[in-house]
Amino acid sequence: MLKDKILLIILLFITVGLLAQNDSLSTKEIKKQNKLFKKKKKTVYNDTLVLSNQNILVGELKKMDKSVVVFKTKYSDSDFKIKWHKVVEIKSNRMYLISLSDGSKIKSSLNSNKNNRKLILDSGVNAIEEDLNNIVLIEPIGKNFFSRMTIDIDFGITLTKANNLKQLTSNLSTTYLANKWRSNAFFKTVLSSQDGIDDINRMDAEISFQYFLPNDWFAQINAIYLSNNEQKLNLRSTYRAGIGYFFIHSNKMFLAATGGLAYTTENFTDDTPSKNSSELFLGAGFNKYDIGDLSLLTSAVIYPSLTDKGIYRADVNFDMKYDLPLDLYIKMSLTYNYDNQPIEGAEDSDYVFTTSFGWEFN
Q1: Which residue segment(s) compose the domain that 354 sits in?
Q2: Alpha carbon of 277 to those of 161, 254, 256: distances in Å?
Q3: 3-state class of 251 per DSSP?
Q4: Is there a domain that residue 123 lies in?
Q5: CATH number of domain containing 309
Q6: What is the mean pLDDT of the chain?
Q7: Do 294 and 165 belong together in one domain?
């Protein structure tokens, strides 16, 4: 069991490392960007933000994502994080990759019209005006590997004298965002011991790859793992591939649905033979992040079996995260798993509710 967990952790990091590449840049462009990186320390940026209270910031626009602008000035000890709706004017001569709410992407400098809060985007072929509210992502072209990656690490500990309860929860997750695709990976554990009852051991892990298609469509593949002694699962491995669509994709939230085919292998903790099955899957995901320092992320997937008619299972995940200073955060998470026909002696459902304290690297 421990060996399986170690292998999964290694697989998560290898996968993200393999996918981390400048997917939209040619060899010539990469060499050009590398030369720029060497000169970066000597470069003085004059990107400009004008805020709704008429304050003006001059410095380096590092990115805008999930309705938050990250901006660096020479006089600040740390980067400013500013809500996108507070920005009324933005100017920069550098080139950026800009994602719009309709799913299209444009490479352009930044020059907004202060009279109507519109951004003038010039791709070199034609120039258009786009409302600032329709901008989902702004990212400087040629960013290095670590600037595209976000890593979250959090832990939760429970100790009680009664019944000698000891519980440890942990979560390691990472996201890598490229110009045309996104990769996510996470590894969660729950370890609990208490006098008079069996120990609880649970592990959730997932690796996903999402490729963005035109008009808010995307293709997606996932590798999902679950180990849970409550349901007598030594390891359930699910591999799925499908296509999805963003019904809402803005700088305030996204709502998406996915569907496709899955293949699942289950190994059990008792003498029950291993089980393989082919399945359909239908899922939905919702992420809301324009509510102050709070963000909500929830997803639900149902798997009707193609191999055994009448059998289905479902997975539901919910995360509520509150950002603190110094890139710290507190988080509450709920994970629920259901199987309408579990093996003999196993529970048909299991859930885990955790609260944890963590740190985000971005």
Answers
A1: 147-361
A2: 44, 32, 26
A3: coil
A4: yes
A5: 2.40.128.130
A6: 84
A7: yes
Sign of CA dihedral 189, 194, 199, 200: negative
- Of 107, 72, 111, nearest to 90 by C-alpha is 111
> Which of 111, 143, 175 is where one domain is finished?
143
Query: How many H-runs (helices) and E-runs (strands) does the chain carry?
Result: 2, 21
d(CA 355, CA 169): 9
Q: How many CB atoms neighbour CB 278 within 10 A?
A: 12
* Measured distance CA(22)–CA(178) in Å, rounded: 7
Q: What is the DSSP letter of 254?
A: E
**In terms of domains, do 35 and 164 share one?**
no
Answer whether 28's CB lies under 8 Å from 34's CB. Answer: no
Q: What is the pLDDT of residue 106?
A: 85
Q: Which residue carries 């990976």 as its tokens? A: 185
Same domain, 106 and 201: no
Residues 90-100: tens digit of each pLDDT:
999 888 888 88
190 and 134 housed in the same domain: no
Q: What pLDDT digit, counting tens, does each position of 57-83 carry?
A: 999 998 898 888 989 888 877 788 888
Based on the number of CB atoms within 10 Å of its own CB, is 79 exposed (0-12), middle (13-18) or buried (19 or more)?
Answer: middle
C-beta atoms surrounding 361 within 10 Å: 11
Distance, CA of 111 to CA of 299 (rounded, Å): 37
What pLDDT does 20 receive?
46
Domain count, the chain: 2
Q: Does residue 154 belong to any structural domain of this protein?
A: yes
Spatial contact of 226 and 233, defined as CB atoms under 8 Å apart: yes
Residue 164, Cβ neighbours under 10 Å: how many?
Answer: 11
State the pLDDT at residue 32.
54
Domain identity same for 85 and 182: no
On whether both 45 and 171 belong to a single domain, the answer is no
- Among 37, 277, 278, 14, which Cα is nearest to 144's? 37
> Do 186 and 308 share a structural domain?
yes
**pLDDT score recorded for residue 28:** 54
> Residue ranges of the chain with pLDDT lower than 70?
1-44, 142-145, 162
